Please model this.
Amino acid sequence: MASEPTLSGRIGAATPPGRDRAVDGLRALAILGVVLGHWLVTALVADSGSVRVTSPLKAVPELAPISWVFQTLALFFLVGGMTAAKSYASATNYGPWIRARLARLSRPVVPVLLVWCVAAGGMLVAGAELETVTALVRLVVSPLWFLLVFAALTAATPLAVRLHPVWPLAVVATVDLLRYGLAAPDWLGWVNLAAGWLVPYTLGAAWTRGTLGGTGTRGGLGGRGAGWVLLVGGGVSAAALVVWAGYPASMVGVPGAAISNLNPPTLAAVAFGLAQCGAALLAHGPLTRALRRPAAWAAVALANLSAMTVFLWHQTAMIAVTALGLAAAGPLPGLHTAPVESDWVVARVAWLPVFAAALLVCVAAFRSAELRRA
Model:
């Protein structure tokens, strides 16, 4: 009697032969970076019956290099531009195509908003301070800006596939020159919210077309030469802008900072994103080979099936652990204490498996909204 196939075997058998597994691997790495980054640089400090949100990057700026490891948003837009361009090329009608893609983005958002409407109301009725409730809701809702920008760029895919990445990059550079060099009003920076993330998005579209240089690998992907140019050029440019042009060293927002590299994106953040895109090009081949292993591919495939759910609920998981810990044992190191020393990060790392377990519970409860097809 034939033995029952393993989970990894079933996933491998269900995977289309032509699927680019490395792209799914890059998306999984991007998700991991965002989740770990938020968990490591977000502190919920319990103080006199209220909770405030702060960051170890504020008190210990020497930890800024951590943000260079875990700020992976450019990978999301790179992969998004690639998959959208490929999908659009095979679509016969724009209307049904964009409705299907936007529905896939929006469906998982509904449970988050409903749960937090109820939770916020319950906390206020129970006597929680408005400041505390506002801080927690903002922490959960703030990542939704990413989905709004991603949805807008997805809708603009017919334009993006024809746009060279140098044009949005030039817009970002011009806006920063006007803001920081010529004292233009700060609101002008919000132009970069679209232009900044359009750079990796259009790079993804160019990746699909095979126009990033060289003959590329499978599917006409750009050559290694383009990968090295982006990695070295973007990395050196980002470092130079931080060292000599006064841009913040942190690639994520820091509470109270005069300038944020992400809110809206600056030229330094976009240059850093170019380096990430170059690293992705160079990693494509090795990642493809690594994901031929059934167990590795199964893990990546499962992560991609719940990618939106993980993204939307990871902050809720952290908040739930923080609240339960405070109720059960009072202020705990790395969970409720102020991140004023580097030792806080060591204590926070010990809490990451607990956050991950809580996130798995959230994924099990709410992933059906993501898996449901329109």
Residues 39 and 352 are 7 Å apart (CA to CA). The chain is about 70% helix and 5% strand. Residues 214-222 have pLDDT under 50 and may be disordered.
